Amino acid sequence: SDQERTFVMVKPDGVQRGLIGEIVSRFEERGLKLVGGKFMRIDEELAHEHYGEHEGKPFFEGLVEFITSGPVFAMVWEGQDAVAQVRTMMGETDPAESAPGTIRGDFGLDLGRNVIHGSDTEAGSAEREIELFFDDDELLDYERVDETWLYE
Ligand code: DAT
Ligand code: MG
């Protein structure tokens, strides 16, 4: 099996709307393993680093303002093809184009308030974001009791 880690974050709108538990539950029930979690406020500098690829785009300043506007719940999830599986479970970037059953399709309506972040599948993205938000000693290695039943 292709075990990998991905960075996920409940954005300030998701925190304010009480969706942390619901979102964590979906990944837990899917079989992904939580290896790190942090309730935190993103400062301006971290926001610029995290969303560096979007610097200069018309929505960038609004995006930074939004992501720093309140606490977020940052996480690292591990599992088979975790990066792509999380992206599939999130839906499209625009909640309006996201299928029901996806997180953005079930809990969002507006592009600028799309509840959740997950690393994209481009090589190195997940590793970069995990390092940006977590120290090595904040990521835990352990076995979940259901692993022998989750994976062949
Ligand atoms: P994703 O979050 O699906 O990886 P992205 O990396 O392209 O999407 O963009 C990061 C965030 O920026 C996205 O979650 C919402 C916001 N955003 C993207 N495109 C936008 C646009 N055209 N107008 C307003 N906000 C946008
Ligand atoms: Mg992205």
TrEMBL record:
It comes from Halalkalicoccus paucihalophilus. One of its GO terms (biological process) is GTP biosynthetic process. It catalyses: a ribonucleoside 5'-diphosphate + ATP = a ribonucleoside 5'-triphosphate + ADP; a 2'-deoxyribonucleoside 5'-diphosphate + ATP = a 2'-deoxyribonucleoside 5'-triphosphate + ADP. One of its GO terms (molecular function) is ATP binding. ATP binds at K11, F59, R87, T93, R104, N114. Residues 3-141 form the Nucleoside diphosphate kinase-like domain. It is found in: Cytoplasm. Its cofactor is Mg(2+). The active site is at H117 (pros-phosphohistidine intermediate). One of its GO terms (cellular component) is cytoplasm. This is Nucleoside diphosphate kinase.
